[in-house]
Design brief:
Blueprint (H helix, E strand, L loop, with lengths): L5 H11 L3 H10 L8 E6 L5 H9 L3 E8 L2 H13 L6 E5 L12 E7 L8 H11 E12 L5 H23 L2 H13 L4 H9 L3 E8 L4 E7 L11
Parallel strand pairs: 1-2, 1-4, 2-3, 4-5
Antiparallel strand pairs: 5-7, 6-7
Length: about 230
């Protein structure tokens, strides 16, 4: 599905969010650990917008690996990486967030933007992320959520259900992809419920940061600083 809309994906992200997605990724970079030479693993990396934003807004990032199952999305990402002359620092590879192809304690930070709600087994994916992070590592997840204010909630759902699929379908040629978007957002365990899933997966100091009236949020969690978290490996 994502490969089918790959050529219009970035354009629609900017258009449908009124460029708030750019602002959200910049906020994400501000939550990186305050230490140098960070190694980043970005899951569901798509067209590499998160990694490119992290390199643009933080001097602490040394290397970035992007993992995704959509080859055409990553091809666009590789072109964008080349345009920024970051080929030696950022690499994109095929892979699944539930079976990450790296040994335990490999990265300082894991990021994931608008991808966790597409994972079939979220608890297993979160445990896998914990395994991959180094002691004292950090997980940062950016995802859509729903506003708490009833008036905004009603307006948001009308936009998501009626307007967004029409615009997305018209521009991308795949209306079902944008119907899928609203269904996954409405059924996703956002807010405190998702924080609980992160805590259950072994993350500490878990916090959520609502963005733009609560239509999205950043979730932050840290790993134990003393020893790697290894889940069955």
């Amino acid at each position: 599905m994502f490969d089918h809309i790959a050529t219009r994906y970035d354009l629609l992200n900017r258009l449908l969010s009124l460029r708030q997605d750019v602002r959200w990724r910049k906020k994400l970079s501000g939550l990186l650990p305050d230490r140098s030479s960070l190694s980043i693993l970005d899951l569901a990396t798509g067209t590499a917008d998160v990694l490119l934003s992290l390199f643009a807004h933080s001097r602490n990032v040394r290397t970035g690996i992007g993992l995704d199952m959509a080859a055409k999305m990553m091809n666009i990402g590789r072109r964008k990486i080349g345009e920024k002359n970051l080929d030696s620092s950022i690499h994109l590879i095929p892979g699944d967030a539930v079976h990450i192809p790296f040994v335990s304690a490999s990265f300082d930070v894991i990021t994931m933007a608008f991808g966790i709600r597409n994972v079939q087994d979220v608890p297993s994916a979160l445990k896998e992320m914990n395994r991959i992070l180094k002691p004292g590592g950090r997980l940062l997840i950016l995802e859509f959520s729903l506003p708490q204010n009833r008036f905004l909630y009603s307006i948001y759902l009308f936009y998501f259900r009626k307007i967004l699929p029409r615009i997305g379908g018209l521009i991308s040629g795949d209306r079902n992809a944008y119907l899928y978007l609203n269904k996954t957002v409405e059924t996703f365990p956002y807010g405190k419920n998702f924080c609980t899933l992160m805590t259950d997966a072994g993350f500490q100091n878990v916090q959520d940061y609502p963005l733009t009236f609560g239509i999205s949020a950043i979730y932050k969690g840290d790993t134990n600083s003393k020893s790697p978290a290894i889940w069955g490996r």
